[in-house]
Amino acid sequence: MDNLLVLVRHGESEWNKLNVFTGWRDVDLSEKGVEEARRAGRLIKQAGIKFDIAFTSALIRAQRTLDLILEELGQTGLETLKDQALNERDYGDLAGLNKDDARKRWGEEQVHIWRRSYDVQPPGGESLKDTAARVLPYYEAKIWPELQAGKNVIVAAHGNSLRALVMKLDRLSREEVLQLNLATGLPLVYRLNDDGTVAEKRELTG
């Protein structure tokens, strides 16, 4: 059971619920999001997984998700590294806007391009490519060495920062990663080989 990497997208946030672009805005979990995080913790516990170290972003919705998971596991106080390298993609001028309002302002097609292109930035924000450019070096420098040492690692982060990481682990093309949607509060469990390639991947769905 060594070398397990568990990725969890934070539970639903207050702005997810309102269909608002969030990005780097620091928004807390909704009631549903709290329950999603607790459920993720229970699923991980049922799978018999314990962690040696945790990583999360600088944003409260990911940190709170991690705290709730660790509470369910009886692992509060686990060594945790927080870094904005794992933050959600920065949506720039779109942050704080309702997605329907954004479509009215810029048009359905343009908003779709900003949301789903690999390397097109929204005004003042980051593309998925930009997000990957900070997530992947952080993974190589901080997270992978812990896995190499045989530790079990949990990363609680965001839809796009985790998409960038899954793109690397699953060796997805630019086109394939655009089809990838990570559900809130759904643990993805990877067992990695010594060279960092994926030996096994599974979703914990209960």
Provide structural commentary.
This protein has 206 residues and is α/β, with parallel strands linked by helices. The protein has one domain (4-203): Phosphoglycerate mutase-like (Rossmann fold, 3-Layer(aba) Sandwich), CATH 3.40.50. The chain contains 8 helices and 6 strands. It has helices at 14-17, 31-46, 60-73, 99-106, 108-116, 128-148, 159-169, 174-178, and strands at residues 4-9, 53-56, 80-82, 153-157, 188-192, 198-203. The protein has a 6-stranded mixed beta sheet with strand order 3-2-4-1-5-6. A hairpin with a 5-residue loop joins strand 5 and strand 6. Helix 2 (31-46) packs across helix 3, helix 4 (99-106) crosses helix 5 (108-116) and helix 6 packs across helix 7. It is globular and about 50 Å long. The model has no long low-confidence stretch (mean pLDDT 96).
